[in-house]
# Entry
Amino acid sequence: MTDAPLVDPGFDTEDDDFDEIVEKPDAELPEHRYMDRELSWLAFNNRVLELAEDPSLPLLERANFLAIFASNLDEFFMVRVAGLKRRIATGLALPTNIGTAPMKVLSNISDLAHTLQARHAEVWNEDVKPALSAEGIDFVRWDELDDGERAYFYDYFQSQVFPVLMPLAVDPAHPFPYISGLSLNLAIRIRNARTGREEFARLKVPPMLPRLVPVPAKPDAPESIRFLALEDLIAENLDDLFPGMEILDHHAFRLTRNEDVTIEEDESENLIQALEAELLRRRFGPPIRLEITEDMDDVTLDLLVRELDISEQEVYRLPSPLDLRSLFGMGRIDRPELKYTPHLPVTPLAFQPADADSKHARADVFAAIRKGDVLVHHPYESFATSVQAFLEQAARDPHVLAIKQTLYRTSGDSPIVQALIDAAEAGKQVLALVEVKARFDEANNIEWARKLEKAGVHVVYGLVGLKTHCKLALVIREEKGLLRHYTHVGTGNYNPKTSRIYEDFGLFTCDPEVGRDVTRLFNELSGYAIEKKFKRLLVAPLHLRKGLLRLIERERRNALAGKPARVRIKVNSMVDEQIIDALYRASIAGVHVDVWVRGICSLRVDLPGVSDNIRVRSVLGRYLEHARIFAFANGGDEEVYIGSADMMHRNLDRRVEALIRVVKPAHIAELGAFFDLAMDDSSATWHLGAEGVWTRHHVDAEGRALADVQDRTMATIQRRRRPRATR
# Structure
């Protein structure tokens, strides 16, 4: 195979005119050309909420979307809002696409977040909860239980709950207690029967106990399912916790803290020790949101606001129950008619065993890859019989000499981690590049990184100042006295659990150019800084941004020259100003630009004469759209990449990312067809419109449901079967 150039040979990659274009944007681009990124993120979570509101979706799935909304919003406050407040407090400049004046930004966020949280609570209390009740799934209050059920719960409370409760009084001898982030608490006002003095106490609802406690089934309704909220059970038994005291009032509340980890890395410092110290500091981050039940009295609220040093804008008064993340547990209810129809991932066609009728047949993954590049699409195609099988076969194959892999988010009990351990114990050279700074997975990553080290795996933690976010696995195998490189480059994490719900692509290849590229990249990641250019890879932080800008600029020039010109980008977030400006300039020149984005989008489509040729779509559903695709018409010889990078500053400037060029015509066609489906007006998607407003298009003019992109993709891939061997 000949070298695959970074860009078209006829395009001068060192063209001074190009540098002028990307570094000094055209004066014709309007000043207010970016949507506020934080409000755009809230618009994304609004799309999640729209799924919860959709009566055509299965009920338990709607409950799950309510839980996803709650979890998303928690992270938004812990990271995005916390980061904004930190920048404002320290006088740091806000990004260009943040929007207006700093304090106005926080005010806008607060207004929209209050509206969304109120709507979220209403969808649960007024819609989904009653609908579940009609299906025999009830959430009951204490006063709805009969005497026998109350006796059962009193025994449950005494044996399972009471021993782990820790009431904390607030008085001159007991200062106001520390309230941990995202904990559910009861604020209790009591009166001392002896002195007549009113006191305050805080009681944390134990997070290790089931939040929704099952109510024993009634003999006359054995199929019914009922739950009592744990905080309600505790509240009804407060007398046992405060004997001799009069319980005056009690209310639930929940605090969100700044949990964004910021590590100032130094060449001489131990990264693990620094991260562990920062994780301890995270627990004590300043409060940024206080959620209270709508019936909380002013005396209790004033105490919380004063002691937590929180503003009125940061208080969210909501109907109970608080923290609907508890609805994630609803997925364990055995009511298949209230869920999506189960989908069993298929084994990718290239990895299907020749003897498909045999129960124990297992394909030779290396032999399949030698026949040509293999593109896999999760979760429609199985992670277990592709990526996992690739690494497990490598671990037990005596001809494999070395395995090198990046790990961003996985788990200690993962078969991926176990395969690396097995390989090391079998005497192979194994390198695991572990990103311990993966947000909210830091502690887990440290734990299983040490487990790998104990097994003899060479564990490295990447480069100072950069997160390693690329998804790479490399296997070195001896074949007939020569070494062959087998490589996997993916868009998603090496995590078997999330692979069942995250939509991602991965490319397997034994192309020696890719092998050399990835070998050099691993050597640089485990040794020194990344400086080299690559053949089939675009790598951040040094070359990816400029490579993509040149590819977009080539489309602009092709359009001006009358050649076929189109840009298609599928990402989680579209935020980077240079990339957005390049897309605007391409649109002005007549390039058709299609952007498929899951979350934040600072790109606007309502700029006359600038964004006329830009369409933006979003797809949400049973799977989380996670793959990144970059496709360029290239004058008729399409150039396509997949990889790990979103269009955000952190991905392009502060992370190690990798895109791989897809070269097999069938794979380019498959990715193109997938994109066609999402951009087709007959598919159910959200369309970005004026002022950053997203409109859901899921039914036609006659009210008939439009095609579901994920269902259609699932059906297409399910039809792939290896032809039966003739006997």
Remarks:
- Confidence is low (pLDDT under 50) at residues 1-14, 263-269.
- The longest strand covers residues 245-257.
- The chain has three domains: 16-31+538-718, 142-338, 349-533.
